[in-house]
Amino acid sequence: MAEPTHSNAPPAPSASVPVVELGSLDTLWFQVSGTVCNLACSHCFVSSSPTNHTHEALSLAEIEPFLIEGAALGVREYYFTGGEPFLNPDLEAILARTLAFGPATVLTNGLLLPPDRCRRLAAIAEASSYSLDFRVSMDGYSAETNDPIRGDGTFDRILGGITNLSAAGLNPVITVTEVHDDNGTVQGKQRFFRLLERLGIDKPRLKILPVFRIGAEAERTGAYESWQRLRESDSPGSWEHLQCSSCRMVTDQGVWVCPILVNEPEGKMGETLADTLTGFAMTHSACWTCHVHGVSCRT
Amino acid sequence: MGQRIPEDPAVHKDRSTDKLTVHRGLATWGEKLVPLDRFREAARQAGRQLSASERSRELESFTERRADPTPVEGPFSKIVVFGGVYSNHFALEALLEASHREGAEAIYCLGDLGGFGPKPDKVRPLLDEGRVLAIQGNYEQSLASGQEDCNCGYTDPRDNHFAEISYGYTDRNTSADFKRWMGTLPERRRVRLGARELLLVHGSPRRVNEFLFASTTPAAFLEVLLEQEGADGLLCTHTGLHWHRKLPSGRDAVNVGAIGRPANDGSTSVWYTVLEDYGPELSVAHRPLAYDHAGLAHEMRAEELPEEFVETITTGWWTTCLEILPAKERARSRF
Ligand code: SF4
């Protein structure tokens, strides 16, 4: 059967925008619940919400071909995000299948983790020789600091999810954004470690992330200034510190350059992974945050 | 494509500005809300859509073999390989005796000579005496180039504190001559064992400080790396935890472990690896090595190294830098 060739590549980038090549495909992301979330956090860089269907959920059948193609390309790790991944009814089956290929990490808000689900997840983790990791997001070490960002009553429910995971033998990585200025400081980190200790978690794990001023966060703190863009002269000689040099993101709308630019059609690179092994012109302001803060969404 | 997640009946507010309902029928496009269909159409038009033959060409060139001028050493039929000395000259001495008993034709060290333990300069004469063939680890790169830290970049302030103590002590107590010698070590070696060509690196073939743990290193990933390198086997260290995986293609991937500190398993022994050619099969054996760990603990205390480090030596459990461990390895860990 003849295959139609159809290229809608964006116009060639102007010479002043640096291009990041894909050195290796280490991290394959899945927007597994689309942009649908049970929360609507004020700093969400993809503006997920209960009514946001910009991207829809992925089924196991839709994910399978990407696992196979990814293995041929030497993918190292699989990440699942959304929205809230646990809104996807297929998620447990998807994780079990993925763990036949390699290690998997789920980025969750921790609200949909009752004890029985955590026990099933622990059994899935146990059955594989690869690691299954959970990252639970929080924005403050108290209801007063967390709830204004994530929503009323979320702090206690997040702690509930963390406790259930840990009771099932799954030890999540707590992911904290620098939405409060001191979250990333030594004292700030120690407050989170103490909180986890109080929950009885004896092997605490923590990751601090900077905030992207796009999506809902643009409304909260203001969008980027026009000078906050990458220019060719910013080039450090290698873009290896940027995750787009080693990742791609799969959503129900196709394959995107990274987890950050899924609400920009210019971030879409193709339909299969093979379509996206080419370089990407970093025209977006979010690229500036990545470059300046050395951000990676990975653990 | 895609499955629609039904709306939670609890989400019933319809004030159009409410964050929970604002997206009904709309999509976020950059900083604007646009009708869902408009975004989807733009997404459908964006990016490349190659033909089947173009796709397979892309896949092939992405994973194709890369030239490597590293000379091939050997051939041998039996070698001993170890990593992570971390200044543990007691274990290094025991390792040399064990290698002699094993009848190894060559001894390879995959780097990280210093850090953690006492008196780093005691390692150098032992390496010479055993004719150990070494490559650089991240510690050698940092020490030889005069960097201020080992570049571990931990999140936990406690881990950073201990990493600084360990690097600072090693830096102060390593002679300029030893540091210069570290700078002359190659970053990788290739060794022929029987008919097989093995690639020896510190972290991974791509980065000196990449961690290859058993539970986070997929077989398919290793196959692609070894295909690109044109090697039949990969030997690495850096994590301090040993493992071996026979890949579907018949190639081998081996983390040879570390002799500088125990493998976080509650035993005071440390680990090295013996590789032997058996014709069609490569034999890979991880061997525990008992050594004078009480002597090491004594010397570490005399040098006023942190008691937390000494505890690891005397109990076999790691007490610091645990955040590098993936979920499975951390679950087996005591702390
Ligand atoms: S937002 Fe960051 S990860 Fe995405 S393309 Fe830009 S630089 Fe790369």
Number of strands of chain B: 14
Straight-line distance between termini of chain B: 45 Å
Large-scale geometry of chain B: globular
**SSE succession of chain B:** EEHEHEEHEHEHHHEEHEEEEEHHH
Give the structural class of chain B.
alpha/beta
Write structural notes for this entry.
The complex is a heterodimer of chains A (299) and B (335). Chain A has helices spanning 60-72, 91-98, 115-126, 143-150, 154-167, 186-198, 216-221, 286-293, and strands at residues 6-8, 19-20, 27-31, 77-81, 104-108, 132-138, 173-177, 206-209, 247-251, 254-256, 268-270, 280-281. Chain A is an alpha/beta fold and 299 residues long. Chain A has a domain at 24-226: Aldolase class I (TIM Barrel). In chain A, the strands form two sheets. In chain A, strands 8-7-6-5-4-3-9-10-11 form a nine-stranded mixed sheet, covered by helices on one side. Chain A has a two-stranded antiparallel ribbon with strand order 2-12. In chain A, helix 1 (60-72) links the parallel strand 3 and strand 4. The N and C termini of chain A lie far apart (43 Å). Chain B has two domains: 26-62, no CATH class; 74-331, Metallo-dependent phosphatases (Purple Acid Phosphatase, chain A, domain 2, 4-Layer Sandwich), CATH 3.60.21.10. The relative contact order of chain B is 0.14. Chain B starts with 25 loop residues before the first strand and ends with a helix. With 335 residues, chain B is of the alpha/beta class. Chains A and B meet through strand 1, helix 1, helix 6, strand 8 and strand 11 of A and strand 1, helix 1, strand 3, helix 2 and helix 8 of B. The complex binds iron/sulfur cluster. Iron/sulfur cluster (SF4) binds at residues 20, 242-244, 257-258, 260-261, 280, 282, 284, 286-287, 290 of chain A.
